[in-house]
Design a protein that fits this description.
mainly alpha; single chain; rod-shaped; Helix Hairpins; 2 domains; about 75% helix
Length: about 230
């Protein structure tokens, strides 16, 4: 058994898993970011509110225009000399007062809407600027992630080729043992030994066993059960 080759295979497999996890994270992150979605929704909502306010302002303008027309007709009847009946003139006078009160109320409402529109226009500008900044940051990050993804895809292709090459140099029985250990021990079948210590679980090995491992003999960690490989 070549423990060194099995350890090399372990290194390749570990890097392959790490790179694959990172690739999955990047692919998940390449969609539109949550802060971009929120900024777009915020900008859209601000524009909707402003549009609604301006629509209400236009409706009020039309109502004021209609009211002015009615008031003009009222004044013409009152002062045109055609109406002389005191009761009818009194009715026109009351109507005039009512129309003027209503017009004053509409003008107050118009003023409130104008002030609201000014505030909303400022909000539209602010949220638009925020959206542009967030999208610019996202586009920049998106480009970085795409570049990293390309590097990962290339490296994973190299690792797959290297893995096949390394496995081809290992006996079938040893590969079966290695694959079994990986499946049972969280993906790590081979543990490096340095200074007499298992680098996975941290146990100190008996001196004789550590020396045997350094000579390339087949030994398993008494604590974590992994195949031990000498590493100095």
């Amino acid at each position: 058994m070549s423990v060194g080759r099995l350890y090399r295979l372990q290194q390749v497999d570990s890097e392959n898993e790490e790179k694959s996890r990172r690739l999955a994270e990047i692919e998940q992150s390449l969609g539109v970011a949550d802060d971009v979605v929120a900024a777009r929704e915020g900008a859209s909502e601000a524009e909707r509110q402003l549009y609604e306010t301006k629509a209400n302002m236009r409706a009020l303008e039309l109502e004021v225009g209609s009211l002015d027309a009615r008031l003009k007709a009222n004044q013409e009847r009152m002062y045109g000399g055609k109406v002389r009946n005191p009761k009818e003139l009194s009715g026109l006078s009351e109507e005039s007062k009512s129309l003027k009160r209503h017009r004053s109320e509409l003008e107050d409402s118009e003023l409130e809407l104008m002030l609201l529109a000014e505030t909303q226009e400022a909000e539209v500008v602010a949220r638009g600027a925020r959206l542009r900044q967030v999208e610019a940051d996202w586009q920049e990050q998106h480009a970085v992630l795409l570049a990293e993804k390309a590097n990962l895809v290339a490296r994973l292709a190299d690792l797959e080729e290297l893995r096949s090459e390394v496995r081809s140099r290992i006996a079938m029985a040893d590969l079966a043992m290695y694959d079994d250990l990986r499946s049972r021990l969280g993906g790590v079948a081979v543990a490096l030994v340095r200074h007499g210590m298992c680098q996975v679980c941290g146990v100190d090995l008996p001196t004789a066993e550590a020396q045997a491992v350094e000579r390339g003999e087949r030994h398993f960690c008494p604590v974590c059960d992994r195949l031990l490989c000498g590493g100095g």
